[in-house]
Amino acid sequence: YESCLLFTTGYQAMVGAIMAMADKDTTLVLDAYAHACILDGTFLAAGVPGRQAEVRFFNHNSPKSLERILKTKERKNAIVLVEGIYSLDGDKGKISEFVEICERYGAALIVDDAHGTGTLGHRGTGIVEELGLTPKQVPVVVSTFSKTFGGIGGILLGDADIVDMVKHSARSFLFSASLPVPIVAAASTILDMLEDNGPALVSELHQKAEYFRGKLTGAGFDLGASNTHIMPVMCREERKALFMHVALLECGVFMVPITYPGVKVGEERLRVNITRGHTQEDMDTALELLKTYGEAFFVLSGDEIGPYEA
Fold this sequence. Notes:
The protein has two domains: 3-179, 3-Layer(aba) Sandwich (Aspartate Aminotransferase, domain 2), CATH 3.40.640; 199-296, Aspartate Aminotransferase, domain 1. 42% of the residues lie in helices and 16% in strands. It has helices at residues 10-21, 36-46, 63-72, 95-105, 127-130, 160-169, 171-174, 181-219, 238-250, 280-296; strands spanning 3-7, 26-31, 54-58, 77-83, 108-112, 140-144, 154-158, 230-234, 256-258, 269-273. Strand 5 (108-112), helix 5 and strand 6 form a beta-alpha-beta unit. The chain starts with a strand and ends in a 14-residue tail after the last helix.
């Protein structure tokens, strides 16, 4: 990409980008599973007096649904907002198909690649690299230093004209503080690591993710639509997810429970996020504990856990 702008957080980068680019002639088109930063930026843009954008949603990861929206939009311009990897379901966005549809209808595509940066593509530069796409096809990418980079900070990548416009218009950039120097130094070091050894680092991550996925599915766990290193272990009941979380935590394994309102009732889950830092022993320990408690709390069988005791 030609230019880059750093924000204090990834959340602020997306909110600022949307508010800077959208106006009364814009239809903002969102995936139904859009992250909170996309939702909040969109709703703020839709509420600016005299600049209110139209807001439309399409079915999750559905090219057909996106095309229907673009055919029926009421504004002259359109911005489509999607993600490289969806953080709760662990599935990749169908970016190549969305690029084709956006080109057909003259819409701009913004990709939130927070979970793809450092994990996708031969060199770890994200979903755009993995799919062999170009900056012309994906004109704006937003990412973060809070995932692979282990710090804080947001990144907006695009043409110099786009970045310059956002720099002078985004309130979340203009009225916020700069990143602390140690955070920038840490991010720079990790970038150096990716440039020097990215293919090996990404390959190791994918090997570990494939191993863990194979063992989970072999044991009978439902991982939803996941096809990345992020895997939802579907529990489909709040108590099952929370009981599993507590039992695992007491054994030294931290696995985040996601319950309503973070997900719909009946879609409660634990989220597995495999990293290069996990050793073989770490993964095998977690797998054995998941199988033990998956049986104990009826996650694997799908049986009811029973009513609350008075």
